[in-house]
Amino acid sequence: MKLVLHSIFFVFIKATTAGEAMIVVHEAQLLKEPRVDAKVVQSVRKGQHIYIHKKHFLNSPLDSRYFKEHYPDLIKYEEDEHPGYYLTRDNTGEDAYLPKEYAKLIYRDGREITQSVTPFKPDPFDYRLPEPLPEGYPVLRENSYRSAISLFAGPDLKSNYPYTSVMEKEKFSQRGGLQLNYLTRANWDTQDRVYWGGTFHIWASTAEYDLFDGTNSTENKGQVGFGPVFSYDTWKTEDYMINLLLQVTFDYNRVLIKREDRGDELKEERSFTGFTVSPKIGTSFHFINVFESGSFFIGADMQLILPTTLTSNTEPNAPDLWNQYGTSEDTLAYPLTAIWNGMIGFQFQY
């Protein structure tokens, strides 16, 4: 008996207070109040018909007699109390509100052609993923790795051997080098952003000096370093990514100094070596999926050179070209300094 009365009640509601609308998005939400942040009271799937209050069915602009002939009991409302929302009812019979773009009113007249049944392309409410599903979905792969190779260049170090004469002329080349990174994703990272691993780099440069005492000098500088690296993707989309890189390297430095007297053709070559620790910070912009599982990137970094002293184990054969062997003057000292690099490279993920 209750079921019969319930059915009669909703038939009466339909006949006296409502028209119909069809849902045109994958899933529409009925709201308790006409506000975007209101509580959701019911979800309705695409294609379903729901009842809409009769105030939303005004007379057709194409035929002013339409509703008078077919729905004589419908009242024409002059204004909409809540623009942007249709008044309807949820499955408990309570008032609810539906955003107008979610539904197509069924007028049964010429106004039907003014509303599309597919207003959104693509449907922003369709959360279904196309097949085949992305690799690793919905759980990240247990192990994920990255490797990168890059070329970098930047201004040369301005530190030089303490010559006994004033410099007349100096010329510096650009530093140029190669860097390799190998990283693995942190096992606690659920967003595929945090990686750590190891890095290796090598760079070289040349500086030339003419001195007033009639001698020339060429310094061929080089550094080889390796150490731990930390990587974090600060921002990324499907096509682009900004990455932050922090690392500390243990470096072997070598400077090969060639001295020459322009007057009597006196020449000598000595090697100065030493170790240092260098923190480095860098950032890069990635163009993702330039090729399969790979990205192209450009970026810059800054390396902090901690104070260190390079020494030579070979006693000079031409002492007139050098400072006194075995003293602090016969060394090449690097003060605390920072050098920057521009870089380009490729990164691979697997």
Description of the structure:
The protein is mostly beta strands and 350 residues long. The protein has 2 domains: 2-114, SH3 type barrels (Roll), CATH 2.30.30.40; 145-349, Porin. 6% of the residues lie in helices and 51% in strands. It has 2 helices and 18 strands. The chain has helices spanning 2-17, 66-70, and strands at 18-23, 27-31, 40-45, 49-53, 85-89, 95-99, 103-105, 145-154, 167-172, 175-185, 194-211, 215-236, 240-261, 267-291, 294-305, 308-310, 332-334, 337-349. It is rod-shaped, with a radius of gyration of 38 Å. The chain starts with a helix and ends with a strand. The relative contact order is 0.11.
Which structural class fits the helix and strand makeup?
mainly beta
**Largest sheet, strands/sense/barrel:** 8 strands, antiparallel, barrel
Quaternary status: single chain
Kindly identify the CATH topology of the largest domain: Porin
CATH architecture name of the largest domain: Beta Barrel
What is the succession of H and E elements?
HEEEEHEEEEEEEEEEEEEE
CATH class of the largest domain: Mainly Beta
